[in-house]
Amino acid sequence: MALDLEKPIPSLSPIIRRVVHFLSASELKRILALRGSWLYSGTVPCEIKIVSQNLAYGTGDYEDDPERAEDKEGIFFYILYQAAGSPGEFKSEVGPFNTLDEAKSHCNQATHDTVKWQDNNEG
């Protein structure tokens, strides 16, 4: 029996439904849009990345309205924060944002305007 992935699967938990949807959706594509660095607690250097991707994650919760619960295809931006003291480990992700400017503004607000953004031509 084939699953009709266009219809809700109420008997599955929200997490399982999301995995089934993700595995059936087009491949997730992420592109680095902007990179910067800032000092966590004023002393610990941390990297920050803004990526664009072709999918905005929904909550996966059947009790939420469909607009919030379902994943959406399109162009969206997510912020990846490096874990303080752990170079290369990005454990915090914030988004989705509809534009790069919205994501960048969020980063600037969250870090009290201390991010030093790299030129796109830099490494």
Give me some keywords for this one.
123 residues; single chain; 3 helices; alpha+beta; disordered N terminus; 21% helix; elongated; five-stranded antiparallel sheet
Kindly summarize this structure in a few lines.
This protein is an alpha+beta fold. Helices cover 21% and strands 37% of the residues.
Explain what the structure shows.
It is a single chain. With 123 residues, this protein is of the alpha+beta class. The protein has a domain at 29-59 and 72-117. Helices cover 21% and strands 37% of the residues. The chain is built from three helices and five strands. It has helices spanning 14-24, 66-69, 100-110; strands at 30-40, 44-56, 72-82, 90-97, 116-117. The chain has a five-stranded antiparallel beta sheet, covered by helices on one side. A hairpin with a 3-residue loop joins strand 1 and strand 2. The longest helix has 11 residues, at 14-24. The radius of gyration is 17 Å and the shape is elongated. The model is unreliable at 1-13 (pLDDT under 50).
- Uncertain residue ranges: 1-13
Please write the string of helix (H) and strand (E) elements: HEEHEEHE
Shape estimate: elongated
Largest sheet properties = 5 strands, antiparallel
**Cα separation of the termini:** 49 Å
Beta strand %: 35-45%
| Rounded radius of gyration (Å) | 17 Å
Biggest sheet: strand arrangement: 4-3-2-1-5
On the 0-100 scale, what is the average pLDDT? 81
Q: Treating each run of at least 4 consecutive H or I residues as one helix, how many helices?
A: 3
State the total count of DSSP E strands: 5
Structural class: alpha+beta
Q: Share of helix among residues? A: 10-25%
